[in-house]
Design brief:
The protein is 36% helix and 16% strand. The protein has 306 residues and is α/β, with parallel strands linked by helices. 41% of the residues are buried.
């Protein structure tokens, strides 16, 4: 159900309905690595991934307890709430033996304010024993698992060094669904050389997977990435804000009404951002999307079957 005056089912409103009040996400760094960085699949990560493994906004306070307290203190200045989702964002947060995962995740369940855990990972880092542990965790707390698909097109996947084929994502999302674990799928809008039609194909594909949630990221170029070096050598066309807004508006229409939209644009570290400059103003992008949806009388799900 759409709330917060939105024409799409945004995460904030969804969680407010589930928990009866505002729920804030605490960005936590669990100290994990990634098979695309430690030599197993590669040693430089995906080309858009920076030194912090997409965890630029995660806490750097040290222990998990200190990170939680730092994040709570920080967010208390913005929102009045005592309910939190511990969000493991940096790198690949199931890339460890189950005993290690338990050491990291289990203490969080004892924190009085933590009502759930969100785990960002890769589809190729979900062996059976990890899946069974996640299923157990899912029975004891509000859990979702995020998978970085980014695109369904294999040429683009190779270019960005994703490191796994589409079939691996399909197997992972089925395994999670069979265990009743909520899944969030990431798509990047505006990857190098992808056409508007290809981006829509990825969105249509994800709309049919049964994923519980989706994150739409506008592609931005960060200075501590290989994408930045690639762009300096051979600049490629970047989306304008207007193009991004139009495309996302169309994507919202084809998403199932019940799918939870966790993110509708991207916002990187401003000190590292190279291009596009319009991505600095996240609120303006979101407002532009909201305005365009209203102008075109589009709601999430209204375009399915068209």
């Amino acid at each position: 159900m759409m709330t917060d005056g939105k024409r799409y089912n945004n995460l904030s409103g969804y969680l407010r309905q589930v928990f009866g009040g505002k729920v804030a996400k605490l960005s936590i760094d669990g100290g994990f690595s990634c098979p695309n960085r430690d030599g197993h699949k590669g040693d430089r990560g995906c080309i858009f991934c920076g030194e912090r493994g997409a965890g630029e906004f995660a806490s750097r306070a040290g222990t998990l307890e200190k990170q939680l307290n730092e994040q709570i203190d920080l967010l208390s200045q913005k929102w009045k709430t005592d309910k939190y989702i511990a969000y493991f964002q940096s790198f690949t947060n199931t890339y460890a033996p189950v005993d290690k995962l338990k050491e990291i995740f289990e203490p969080l369940l004892k924190h009085p304010g933590v009502v759930g855990i969100a785990i960002a990972t890769r589809p190729d880092c979900l062996p059976d024993d990890v899946l069974e542990y996640l299923a157990d965790l899912n029975r004891r707390t509000y859990l979702w698992v995020e998978l970085g698909l980014q695109t369904i097109h294999e040429d683009t996947a190779k270019l960005i060094r994703r490191g796994y084929p589409l079939k691996t994502y399909e197997e992972a999302i089925e395994a999670l669904r069979n265990r009743n674990i909520k899944t969030v799928t990431h798509l990047i809008i505006g990857l190098p050389n992808e056409t508007r039609e290809q981006i829509l194909q990825s969105a249509i594909y994800v709309a049919k997977t049964g994923t519980w949630g989706i994150k739409l990221h506008s592609m931005y170029i960060q200075k501590d990435t290989d994408l930045y070096e690639m762009y300096l050598r051979e600049p490629f066309p970047l989306m304008t804000r207007e193009e991004y807004v139009e495309l996302v508006t169309e994507i919202v229409a084809i998403l199932p009404e019940e799918m939870v939209v966790h993110r509708i644009t991207g916002d990187g570290d401003r000190t590292l951002l190279h291009e596009p400059q319009w991505s600095r103003d996240k609120l303006k992008v979101i407002a532009s999307i909201d305005k365009r949806l209203k102008e075109l009388h589009i709601r999430q799900g209204s375009g399915i079957g068209l």
